[in-house]
Design brief:
Distance between the termini: 48 Å
Number of strands: 11
Helix content: 10-25%
Shape: elongated
Largest sheet: 4 strands, antiparallel
Strand content: 25-35%
Radius of gyration: 22 Å
Order of helices and strands: HHHHHEEEEEEEEEEE
Strand order of the largest sheet: 8-7-10-11
Length: about 190
């Protein structure tokens, strides 16, 4: 841990929140002299307060320890670059317009890589009432099912959650030039053109 980098980040986060060193110290139950020492890079926070500091500033502990905020930069809002994340513990689904640091259930999630659907996962699509009606030749058991289907275009994304108790089907809006993403609980993320 580089104390100078950590200190510079702490000062940046504190000033972004408009807080004084004394206010931070009071929240963390330390002296304002300790906060000053950290910000000047003359020492690093004790491991016992790292979680509290991360929570106070709303940053992951890893970011705090690295001393750097990783900026993603602007990607022009192109939703065709959509990234999907699924928590292996609880099944929560997360999306981001570009790569992001996302955590759930105490785990850092990795961006899912989309594969082409195989024979057992190739969806059938028809247009009904100006929407895509997508069906999957897939079982829908609690241990193996299609978790979600999403359609993306240049400026929007629509995601529909599916559950084991339902049919393996989804009605999705027609988006010009759209791509269909869907997630199998055993075989991962897949993508195909609509």
């Amino acid at each position: 841990m580089d104390c100078k980098k950590v200190g510079a980040l702490l000062k940046q986060l504190r000033t972004e929140r408009g807080m004084t060193q004394r206010e931070i110290a009071e929240q963390l139950f330390v002296s304002d002299k300790a906060v000053s020492k950290w910000e000047r890079g003359l020492g690093c926070p004790d491991i016992s307060v790292i979680d509290s500091i991360a929570g106070l500033f709303g940053v992951p502990v890893e970011t705090l320890l690295s001393g750097e905020l990783n900026q993603c930069g602007r990607n022009g809002g192109n939703m065709k670059r959509m990234k999907f994340y699924v928590c292996p513990e609880c099944g929560n689904i997360f999306t981001a317009a570009s790569a992001a640091d996302i955590s759930c259930c105490g785990r850092k999630l990795s961006t899912l890589e989309a594969n082409a659907p195989d024979e057992g996962h190739t969806p059938e699509t028809e247009i009904i009432d100006d929407e895509f009606y997508v069906t999957f030749p897939h079982e829908m058991k609690k241990s193996h099912y299609i978790s979600f289907a999403a359609v993306t275009g240049c400026d929007r994304v629509y995601l529909q959650r599916l559950y084991p108790e339902q049919d393996a089907a989804a009605r999705l809006p027609r988006i010009g030039g759209g791509e269909l993403y869907f997630y199998c609980s055993e075989h991962g993320l897949m993508k195909t053109k609509l």
